[in-house]
Design a protein that fits this description.
Shape: elongated
Largest sheet: 9 strands, antiparallel
Structural class: alpha+beta
Radius of gyration: 33 Å
Number of helices: 17
Helix content: 40-55%
Oligomer: single chain
């Protein structure tokens, strides 16, 4: 392979000594008197581009982030590193790598300072999170950008696209790293920094191969430094290959994300169909083990407990192992369906009247296990056995709390339930506040749903859901 690399040429593109010298002078900063002005320019452009990128990232604006790329000075050190390997100039390579390290740390520091001084954000912006999910495509983009940058420099193309492509692959991940450190999201910050390191290594490798292919270094120089060039080239090849393997498998996790998993879950899809719900968005928090579902449908998803149980059973059936503890949180938006004219309604779209829960309600007792309100808060009884309701055949509604018991009336029509209770609670009782809220909520019930020994009562204006169980399932 190395013998082939040494012979690579583009037909008619064998550079003369003058052309090679021009390419080297454009890339490398030669002469001590030129070093300081060069570093000043790099520092200024780095600060300005990082600030612009941070504004775009924190404002969640892709257009501003792309605009920062036009200013970012990221292309120069990448191409210097690639050219130094091609020419076998170890000292210049180490200087270029040191410049990259300083620029990377500087970008992270500036971004962290900017985020710290900025107004507090409730959530991490999507543009920042996008840099924490590297995929195999990012590696391919970096390879293409590195090769395009090397070709542009050697052919005096005026297009800024390769430079912008390099900046896109390097500056936003670094700025995202600094922002995430301020958010104390160290794991995500590490992912963003790994994306930067992956892109840099891939671009240097692609740039080196392109320079060799174009014949930037003289043949005698390549022969003289063949071992050095080969060692550096093999080192970057191994580095990129080592990164690409786990990156490919991580890519499958991103491609087959929470939405994909939700579509593949038979238990979830069956529950959605049964409750006439559709998924707007699904997200899985692996660290906190929470499944977030944003749903739409005509009726509230009051059987979330059933979904949780069915997901556990599906996991057990599929793997033979009990699922680790997890939580399901649902955000629901009401929808309605209308059509005209009625005679053109398809037979499959005809709906039966809602289920009649009157007989199911009239068991001995339903014990209250808790109420979840629309803001996510829960109210739970200290002693489940002390809080119950019992519906009689003559519209008598018996209710018991820890502090008191009494009767009221109720009306039920299929899934519609209305209870009227006037129970006085002794304010001196230890659980008076819980008991009063329990009675108040019962007076606001509008819908009922009963399934396998579990009952849920939806409160008026979608304020929350009360959950009950029979004494046999407690």
């Amino acid at each position: 392979m190395w013998e082939q690399l040494k012979q690579w040429r583009v037909a008619g593109a064998v550079f003369s000594s003058a052309e090679r010298r021009e390419v080297v002078e454009d890339l490398f900063v030669l002469g001590d008197e030129n070093q300081l002005p060069f570093y000043k320019r790099m520092a200024y452009l780095l600060i300005v581009s990082t600030i612009i990128a941070c504004c775009g990232l924190m404002a969640d604006s892709a257009a501003v982030v792309i605009g920062a790329m036009l200013v970012a000075p990221m292309m120069r050190p990448v191409m210097i590193s690639a050219a130094a390997i091609t020419l076998g100039w170890s000292q210049h390579l180490y200087q270029a790598l040191m410049l990259v390290v300083v620029m990377a740390l500087g970008t992270v520091g500036i971004a962290a300072l900017f985020a710290w001084l900025s107004p507090d954000l409730v959530d991490i912006p999507g543009q920042v999170l996008d840099r924490t999910r590297p995929t195999f495509f990012d590696l391919v983009i970096a390879l293409a950008a590195g090769s395009g940058g090397a070709f542009t420099l050697t052919h005096k193309e005026s297009s800024a696209i390769p430079g912008v492509a390099m900046a896109v692959a390097l500056l936003p991940p670094l700025a995202s790293t600094g922002i995430l450190l301020v958010f104390a999201e160290n794991d995500l910050a590490l992912r963003a920094f790994v994306l930067f390191a992956t892109n840099f290594a891939a671009m240097v490798l692609a740039g080196t191969l392109t320079f060799l292919y174009l014949g930037v270094s003289p043949r005698k120089a390549r022969e003289r430094s063949a071992t050095t060039i080969r060692n550096y080239l093999v080192g970057f090849m191994l580095l990129v290959f080592g990164i690409s393997v786990p990156l490919y498998f991580y890519s499958t996790e991103v491609w087959y994300d929470a939405s994909y998993q939700a579509n593949q879950s038979e238990a979830l899809q069956a529950w959605l169909q049964e409750n006439e719900l559709t998924i707007d968005q699904v997200r899985i928090d692996e660290r906190r083990r929470i499944v977030f579902l944003e749903l739409q449908g005509p009726n509230p998803p009051v059987t979330v407990e059933t979904l949780h149980r069915e997901l556990q059973e599906a996991h057990l059936e599929k793997t033979g192992l009990h699922a680790q503890p997890f939580r399901v949180e649902v955000f629901w938006t009401r929808t309605a369906r209308f059509g005209w004219p009625p005679e053109l309604v398809h037979e499959d779209d005809r709906r039966e009247l809602a289920q009649d829960f009157k007989d199911d309600l009239q068991v001995e007792r339903w014990y209250w296990i808790g109420t979840q309100y629309a803001d996510g808060d829960w109210l739970r009884p200290g002693n489940i056995g002390s809080y119950f309701v019992r519906a009689g055949e003559s519209a008598v509604f018996e209710v018991g709390t820890f502090c008191a018991s009494g009767v009221g009336s109720y009306e039920i029509n299929q899934e519609k339930l209305n209870a009227k209770l006037d129970l006085e609670i002794d304010k001196a009782c230890d659980t008076a506040k819980i008991d009063s809220r329990f009675i108040t909520d019962l007076n606001q019930v509008i819908d009922i749903n009963i399934d396998s020994g579990s009952m849920s009562l939806r409160l008026n204006s979608d304020l929350g859901v009360m959950y009950f169980e029979t004494d046999t399932t407690r």
